[in-house]
From TrEMBL, chain A:
It is found in: Cell inner membrane; Cell membrane. Coiled coil: none annotated. This is Iron ABC transporter permease. It is a multi-pass membrane protein. It holds the Pfam family BPD_transp_1.
Automatic annotation (TrEMBL), chain B:
This is ABC transporter substrate-binding protein. Keywords: Signal. Pfam families: SBP_bac_8. It comes from the Bacteria. Residues 342-362 are annotated as: Disordered. It comes from Actinomadura logoneensis. Residues 1-27 form the signal peptide. InterPro entries: SBP.
Length: 607, 397
């Protein structure tokens, strides 16, 4: 005993040291714990605060609920689920949400999936052009599709200018102008690039040798598709469905604009009404339901992916990539691609562009055209913005602010997303990995307005070591990072799932430490995913409106707030011009990213 | 990674327990996202400071020291007001147009965070002011002592800066013989189904307040107007004639928009070909000049051509520029500030300033043509708000 005693601490110390060394060499666990804590604070805490509001009496509702402010109550649950207005507040919107979500997913999968196959796996003419051009719809703010749709199709069931068709004497039926059909089409057109990007990435990574092997073994084309290609695509497919669904659940702009004339409400517009009315309790219940629906889908997704296990498509071995020869279908396929481009990009952009160069939108006479709204020195009578958008410093300041703030957020997002992907995949089914996978995606299912409101109340006040962040750019960046993390963590996870351990293990054998492995092996291989993980949040953040409106103080003008401000003042033409600038900026940035890194969104899809 | 089954189960249970603990701990400390206040407190009283000791010059000097002021307003005119204010006093001033609900939300947050940026709130949602912002002490009322003698007792708490109006408007190019409608009840006829435009009342509190005010103070005239139609006695299926009118109006498929601008465009744009009627703010008459719109107030509509609603001026309780904010309130109550806010008509809360001469065509007599909100029942308006919204929701087709 006396002899052994001094020896023990030494061995324990050594053991700890050894453990620490192992941890540092394979710091997945450490990294995972740090990430988990961060997400617990940034994601779970705001959510809990939202949910707790659903069960507590809010200021001003004392008389209705018969209790004091802050007491627990079932009043809001009753109002949303059982009261006489529950049908209008919840049940109908729920049904509509299901219809719209299903519609949009089918639409986006059909268009996005076929286009992804076209530009990655076939020799369709103009692949590079199509690959770049078909992503553009995602760069337009989603409400522009709704506005363009209304500009074309609206009839006398809504105010404002007469629609182009109506102006030409063609009466448009209500079902075409408002309600589920236009909502599904416009949202589908806006979100199919998600499917395109994710499928493109996955398709490109699939080793054509796998398919060849199956064929050599005698499998027919359909069997190859069913047994090889589709299972390999499943992570991308489930990612795509989730991404589209999450956005559809939370977007209120499009359903609001297109649904209002025919009283077509979905859950997100119901939530928007509640937040606008400042009925926090009802808003919390609705937000809770939306998150719940999303979580259900995530659970299903996890099951699916778990059952399919993982498929390594980038190993240490060589891979081949081959394109199908379309032969005489090459040009028809090109025509289809161009048609999608025309409908999803050219039509809305041209509609917007036309409106910015006409004095009275919708009137096409020579004397009605003008460039005043772009370059005019003086627009008579315009309050607060008396010149064309390209003049003065407002536009440039707003663009710089947007780039600066969203840019930082996107960079952080991209890198953290890849780290999360790394930990989730290397953590190998552990609890940390599961937690990270789910929680990093959660913000996506929370409608932006609800999340921003929650973050405001949590981080606006000084809490422990975290200072009050209200009105600071830091808070805006923080919320943008959290709300856009799902994009990059998804792309990070999907990419890491396909990357085998071999390359890294080889480096490890050669003596490379973790940071070296990360920056010399993982990052270069995952360059495409990393760029996607930065560009997606960037593009989405540039268009972000609801969060930005809530979190910016009047000093910081962003492009979207500038645009919506102009709408408020009734300067449609100026507002549309700013929207076009947003789209142009997003496109230029994506293009530059592609040129500089030589691998990006478009290269993830084709080239 | 492949622990034995019971071990894993135990770990899972422990994990779940920990998570539950963490969640409940978080729930306990999670702040309400709408504000923390114990019980509905009564409206704080607003008294006038000693007029004798008040000197405007002292206020100006103190305001100049503070350097800047930020004002929020539901109307874009505030930009011009801020500019004029800055020019007059040499104090940096910014005016931001923002919808009432958004302003209320933002001010509540700022007050919670103790980081107040909005100094002055020019606010048209009186019930919200009386029901939430004032009792929660997010904003307060300050009455300029030197102007107080000219401010009516009923307009002091909260302090009314001016009165504006929502009016029914028609397109004189399409019906040159005057307004096609003579009676509010005609708007509930099948002939006007889907032809009346207005902002969605669910998003525009002034409309819901109009409805509740009608129920409290306008039923006699509404009944009289129905009698004048010559269709016999009004058959009520709701509790009062106001609710009856709102119900029939809502069921007659009015066209709802998100902005007044869309109402004005839908009624009066040069290329419109169908006669419609729009309920819009008189501020939209600036489009007549700017965009060549054809619009005129529906003169002779019984019992009212629209309604006059007050806009209130309050100061953020936690303002970092309290004197500049006071000076701004003073400014909007004077002729210069009022003129900028009432380009197309209005009545100042300051009796000395009085009415604006720029009334839109067709609106000459504010006292008789417009239904006027009674400020004393705003607490009721606030209480009934949710019910009237549900009522609209259920009935709108």
């Amino acid at each position: 005993m006396a002899v052994a005693a001094p020896a023990r601490p030494v061995s324990r110390g050594r053991r700890v040291l050894y453990r620490a060394r192992v941890l540092l060499r394979e710091p997945t666990v450490l990294l995972g714990v740090v990430l988990c804590l961060a997400l617990l604070y940034l994601v779970i805490a705001p959510l809990v605060s939202v949910f707790s509001d659903a069960g507590r009496v809010q200021y001003g509702d004392e008389a209705r609920s018969g209790r004091h402010t802050g007491d627990w109550t079932g009043y809001y649950l009753w109002r949303v689920f059982r009261s006489p207005v529950s049908r209008l507040l919840f049940w109908e919107p729920l049904l509509h949400t299901l219809v719209v979500s299903a519609g949009v997913i089918v639409f986006a999968l059909a268009v996005g999936g076929s286009m992804a196959w076209l530009v990655t796996r076939t020799n369709v003419p103009g692949r590079k052009f199509l690959a770049a051009a078909l992503v553009v719809p995602y760069m337009l703010p989603s409400w522009t599709f709704a506005l363009a749709w209304l500009t074309l199709f609206k009839n006398e069931r809504s105010g404002g200018q007469v629609g182009y068709l109506q102006g030409a004497g063609i009466a448009t039926p209500d079902w075409l102008a408002y309600g589920p059909f236009p909502i599904i089409v416009t949202l589908g057109l806006h979100y199919y690039p998600f499917v395109l990007l994710l499928f493109g990435n996955a398709l490109r990574r699939i080793d054509a040798q796998l398919e060849d092997s199956a064929r050599i073994l005698g499998a027919g084309g359909r069997t190859v598709l069913r047994r090889i290609t589709l299972p390999l695509m499943l992570p991308a497919l489930s990612s795509a469905v989730l991404l589209v669904l999450g956005r559809v659940l939370g977007t209120f702009g499009t359903p609001y604009i297109l649904g209002l004339p025919s009283d077509y409400n979905v859950l997100s517009t119901s939530l928007y009404h509640a937040i606008r009315d400042r009925s926090t309790g009802v808003a919390s219940v609705l937000a809770g339901v939306i998150v719940l629906v999303g979580v259900l889908v995530v659970v299903v997704d996890t099951r699916l992916v778990r059952e399919q296990r993982r498929f390594v498509t980038v190993g240490g071995k060589g891979a081949m990539d081959r394109r199908a020869d379309l032969r005489r279908w090459r040009w028809p396929a090109f025509a289809v691609g161009m048609a999608v481009f025309l409908v999803s990009v050219a039509a809305p952009v041209l509609t917007l562009l036309l409106s910015t160069v006409t004095k009275t939108p919708g009137v096409f006479r020579a004397d009605n055209f003008t460039l005043t709204f772009w370059i005019g020195e003086d627009i008579p009578g315009a309050v607060g913005f008396p010149h064309g958008v390209l003049r003065g410093s407002d536009l440039y300041e707003a663009a710089w602010n947007s780039l600066r703030i969203v840019g930082i957020a996107a960079l952080v997002c991209g890198f953290v997303g890849l780290l999360i992907g790394y930990v989730v995949v290397r953590g190998d089914g552990g609890r940390v990995s599961g937690f990270l996978r789910q929680v990093s995606f959660l913000p996506y299912l929370v409608p932006g307005i609800a999340f921003a409101a929650a973050c405001l109340s949590l981080f606006a006040v000084r809490r422990g070591p975290v200072p009050a962040l209200y009105g600071t750019v830091t808070l805006l960046v923080l919320v943008l990072v959290v709300t856009h993390l799902p994009y990059s963590s998804r792309s990070g996870i999907a990419a890491m799932m396909q990357l085998g351990r071999e390359p890294e293990e080889a480096a490890q054998v050669a003596g490379a430490r973790w940071p070296v492995r990360m920056f010399r092996i993982i990052v270069p291989i995952q360059k495409g995913a990393l760029v996607t993980g930065v560009v997606l949040p960037l593009v989405s953040g540039l268009k972000e409106l609801s969060i930005v409106i809530m979190l910016t103080t009047s000093g910081t003008q962003l492009l979207t707030t500038l645009s919506i401000g102009l709408v408020d003042y009734g300067y449609t033409q100026l507002a549309n011009a700013v929207v076009l600038v947003i789209a142009l900026l997003s496109f230029t940035l994506t293009y530059l990213a592609q040129r500089l890194t030589r691998s990006s969104l478009a290269s993830g899809i084709g080239g | 990674m492949n622990g034995s089954a019971p071990g894993r189960r135990r770990a899972r249970a422990a994990c779940a327990g920990l998570l539950a603990l963490a969640a409940s701990a978080l729930a306990a400390c999670a702040p309400s996202t709408s504000g923390e206040a114990g019980g509905a407190s009564p409206l704080p009283s607003a008294s006038v400071e000693d007029a004798a000791s008040f000197k405007l010059d002292d206020l100006i000097a103190a305001a100049k020291k503070e350097g800047s002021v930020l004002a929020y307003d539901g109307s874009g005119d505030v930009k011009d007001v801020a500019e004029a204010f800055a020019k007059k006093y040499g104090i940096k001033a910014e005016g931001v147009k923002s919808k009432a609900a958004a302003t209320a939300e933002k001010m509540t947050r700022e007050s919670q965070a103790k980081n107040v940026t909005i100094d002055v709130n020019l606010f048209e949602d009186g019930p919200m002011l009386v029901g939430q912002l004032l009792p929660q002490r997010i904003v307060r009322t300050w009455i300029p002592p030197d102007l107080a003698p000219d401010i009516a007792e009923g307009d002091r708490n909260p302090l009314m800066m001016l009165m504006k109006a929502y009016v029914f408007v028609y397109n004189p190019k399409l019906s040159p013989n005057g307004c096609p409608v003579k009676n509010l009840w005609e708007l509930t006829d099948p002939a006007w189904k889907g032809k009346v435009l207005l902002q969605d009342p669910l998003g525009k509190e002034v409309f819901t307040q109009w409805f509740t005010q009608l129920a409290d103070h306008g039923t006699d005239k509404l009944t009289a107007a129905y009698d004048a139609l010559g269709k016999g006695k009004l058959q009520l299926s709701e509790k009062d004639p106001a609710h009856e009118w709102v119900k029939r109006f809502a069921k007659n498929s009015p066209v709802l928009t998100t902005e007044d601008e869309d109402v004005a465009t839908g009624v009066a744009a040069p290329n419109q070909t169908k006669q419609t009627l729009g309920l819009m703010s008189i501020a939209k008459f600036r489009d007549v000049e700017q965009k060549g719109f054809h619009m005129k107030v529906c003169e002779g509509l019984a019992p009212w051509t629209g309604f006059a609603y007050p806009k209130y001026a309050t100061i953020a309780t936690g303002s970092k520029h309290p004197n500049a904010a006071k000076l701004f309130v003073h400014f909007v109550l004077e002729k210069e500030g009022f003129a900028l806010e009432s380009g197309s008509g209005g009545v100042s809360g300051n009796k000395k300033v009085g009415k604006s001469p720029n009334n839109p065509p067709g609106l000459a007599d504010w006292d008789n043509q417009l239904f006027r909100f009674v400020p004393g029942t705003m607490t009721d308006d606030f209480r009934e708000r949710q019910d009237i919204k549900d009522f609209w929701r259920v009935n709108h087709r």
